[in-house]
Amino acid sequence: MSTTCQICGSTSTTPVIAQDDVAVVTCTECNFVFMETMPSEEVQAAIYDDAYDGASAGYFAKVDSKMRRSRRRARAILRMTANKSDTRPRFLDVGANGGFMTEAAREQGFDCVGVEIDQASVAYAREHYSANEFFLGSIEAYQEAANGATFDAVYCSEVIEHVPDLNPFVEAIAKLMTPDALLYLTTPDYGHWRRPKNLPEWDAFCPPSHCVYFDRQTLSRLLEKHGLKIFRYRFSLKPGLKVLARKF
Ligand SMILES: [Zn+2]
Q1: In which residue ranges of the chain is pLDDT below 70?
Q2: Is residue 30 part of a domain?
Q3: Distance, CA 3 to ligand 1 centroid (Å)?
Q4: From the CA of 181, how far away is ligand 1's center (Å)?
Q5: 230 lies in some domain
Q6: How far apart are the CA of 164 and the centre of ligand 1, in A?
């Protein structure tokens, strides 16, 4: 079967695992790890319905700890954000979820927009954090609707591993960044020294929800294709990548 690597364009892959009819392969050229057949929109919609079912009771119950972590990250992002104008710096939260990081960034002095494809999450965010703007839809749809709007800082945490079509996703993010804008991105790290060697034991290994798996090299290569250069990898004890990048 011919499957094209979204990062290097090679069609040469080898199997990583075939689990419950979910085949994951690695590109023999660049080592990118991805699902041989990406989940359809229907499958994705079903995953999201499931993930956020009973959202207020379960997922959004840990709001206090989510807000504490978000505030720490928002302060760090503000320190690294170059804002040359007199107006408030602008913050874009890609995959805003219930709006926690969007709100934390607003508290630090940013003007914020949160973009989220899950309707229940956007409803929660609009209800609880109404001083921010929330867009229901994909980042590609937001970029088209945004009329050339740009941002000084972009946050994208534990989102990109869910994205089947990576190049339009990263391209939309890059277009929404001012020159020198900061990108803070996190995703599971396939290349991490503490990632379980037996993949089914890794809690982040969950196709089809997570359909792509990055390491430092593949993430850096994808971002650079769209004019984004990683300048720091933040230390993580868990098998996760936390990267800071700038638009060049
Ligand atoms: Zn490749």
Answers
A1: 1-2, 19-20, 48-59, 83-85
A2: no
A3: 10
A4: 27
A5: yes
A6: 15
Q: Is residue 9 part of a domain?
A: no
Report the CATH number at residue 207: 3.40.50.150
User: Is 185 a member of any domain?
Assistant: yes
Residue 215 CA to residue 54 CA, distance in Å, equals 33
Enumerate residues 6+ apart whose C-beta is below 8 A from 142.
Answer: 113, 115, 135, 172, 176
d(CA 190, CA 12): 19
Give φ, ψ of 26 to 5 degrees: -120, 140
50 CA to centre of ligand 1 in angstroms: 31
**Ligand 1 geometric centre to CA of 8 (Å):** 4
Tens digit of each residue's pLDDT (9 = 90 or more) over 155-194 = 999 999 999 999 999 999 999 999 999 999 999 999 999 9
Alpha carbon of 202 to ligand 1 centroid (Å): 23
> What is the value of pTM for the model shown?
0.93
For residue 18, what pLDDT is reported? 73
Q: How far is the CA of 41 from the centre of ligand 1 (A)?
A: 24
How many angstroms does the Cα of residue 210 sit away from the middle of ligand 1?
18
Q: How many domains does the chain have?
A: 1
Ion ligand 1 neighbours, Cβ < 5 Å: 5, 7-8, 10, 27, 29-30, 32
Quote the domain boundaries for residue 47: 40-247
CA separation for the pair 209, 188 (Å, rounded): 13
